[in-house]
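Here's a chain:
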Amino acid sequence: MKNKKGKSLLGLALLIAAIGLFGYFGYSTMSAIKLGLDLAGGVSITYQAKEANPSAEDMSDTIYKLRLRVENYSSEAEVYQEGVNRINVDIPGVSDANAILQDLGQPGSLVFMDSEGNQILEGRQVTSAKGGIIDQNGVKEYVVQLAFDEEGTKAFADATTNGVGKPIYIIYDGRIISYPMVREPITGGQCRIDGMADLKEAEELASNIRIGSLSLELEELRSNVVGAKLGQEAISTSLKAGAIGFAIVVVFMIAVYLIPGVAASLALCLYVGLILVLLKAFEITLTLPGVAGIVLSIGMAVDANVIIFTRIKEEIGVGKTVKSAIKTGFAKALSAIIDGNVTTLIAAAVLFWRGSGTVKGFASTLALGIVLSMVTALFITKFALNCLYGAGFEDVKFYGVRKDIAARPFLKSRKAFFGVSLLLIVAGFAAMGVNRASTGAILNYGMEFRGGTSTNVTFNEDLSLERISSEVVPVVEQITGEAGTQTQKVAGTNEVIIKTRTLNMEEREALDTALADKFGVDPELITADSISGAISAEMKRDAIVAVTIATICMLIYIWFRFSNITFAASAVLALVHDVLVVLTFYAALKWSISSTFIACMLTIVGYSINATIVIFDRIRENMKLKKYNQTIEDVVNLSITQTFTRSINTSLTTFIMVFVLFVMGVSSIREFALPMMVGIVCGTYSSVFLTGAMWYVFSQKKEKKNTDGV
């Protein structure tokens, strides 16, 4: 007995030591974690098209291709138009503009010429250029793989068919950078350039071809190191809010679940240390949407523990010993935890694969958080709980008892619940219609979507971030009449970049006057230009395609796991419901649609599907245990009742984390936290009052159809 207790105490000591170790390394690496432009700033490069009045189509195509290039540095890089013929490239997490320019290359003209000096094709007809290594009969060769568009494929096919045995010259900015020999006609739209000395040479050639394949020839106008969009205050307040929220969650878990709550808190502490270490190890760029992914994964980690502890209480309630209840509780909770996490992980994988920008950043932190939260909940919590039990906490009073409770008649009011949801969704569409009639847009799109005005102001002194936030921003927002102003300092200067909604000439003059009166700024040192939205049509399309594919993949997984299409259909409908209801609030209250909107909606999707899976897991289990005198309605009511406490507690802990962010955060953080809170409440409502009811309705219709068919 003493030996057992000694081993348990040693196990707890080792766990606490691991928490301390990873906590120390996590805290030490916080300063080394790559942060996005919104949290830490980076390098801002402005290019200007050599053509004075480029077409909108060429500008759009060049922006899109440049965005694909710079995403090699960070998925959070932004590329947007400034004025008529300028393009801004903002790359987070770096501080050496010259190194980026040297690596990215100077965008210039690229043409392919034959040996007689005739142009074969232009760089814009090259769709892909990649340097790499191939194995040629056991010998490594360094090559560049090229692919052409339809027009380029035909031109290249004609040139190589007539030029076998002759070189093709690749000319970049008037300089020959390669002259590969044509060995045979190349008609498939792809070719390979070999003969490179090493991988570096291959990648340099590929880089020159890629940057030269832009629709427009560009020249560097300026490059700066800029500060964070949200400012240092946003980071510090978010960290404080996160710490306070986490502390409240720990206290809540211990108060409600006693010894199991202690075990969960230890596992969550280890989770925080591990995720900080892994963010640095995987070099993930952390932005505000990335923080959303972590908040969601913490919520799912808490959820997994709540599911387990509820099961343990139930097992004790039917007369099992604490030790047996712990073992059985983990076993019975396993399917719900795995299905919920894997479903969300599938979504994260698809979003990372098909998404871009903030979507990809959100997906990477969410995927990392999900895997880590599942491991800590299933293994670390179990280890800690067994150690606490072995250390002497064996009495049932430390774990709680949950005996059979009467099923509540949730389905009895299903028509009322459906009616409330339908009313909210219809109200949302009505609000969008009113918005379109009054403003021309169905939602209040922020500058990331609709563009705005970028004002460069040179102050008489080097203003601190705190002064910019507390003194400059209020002056600007008094002119614009809305929140969401973004400010960035240009390192080593007194210059500040202020981004707002689009200002007309009268508003620009009013802003110039206000800055001159308040800060003594020379109006001659204030310049302003219109900027396009950082979230382009292509990024919106990528996000929609990614979410659509993710939804289909989740539907297929749920269908496979539950062997019933009605489960999958109900889950997806609940997901759509939650998104539409949150959109209602965005439309009715005119909340700004900014870059955080995408992360917010994706978080709600992940939260919704996870909550739904838990209830469906209970329905699946109870259907197998269904007694002869029980109806399907009885089973659904019982399943919702059994998971009701879990639904409330999980939602409450996640809500607490976001609520503290809302209370303590700066305006941009609150702009993100408020719809998140609405989404959490909505997800809880749909999982408790709608998903089971929808599954019941679909099941009844399916059964009636089968009966009628017979």
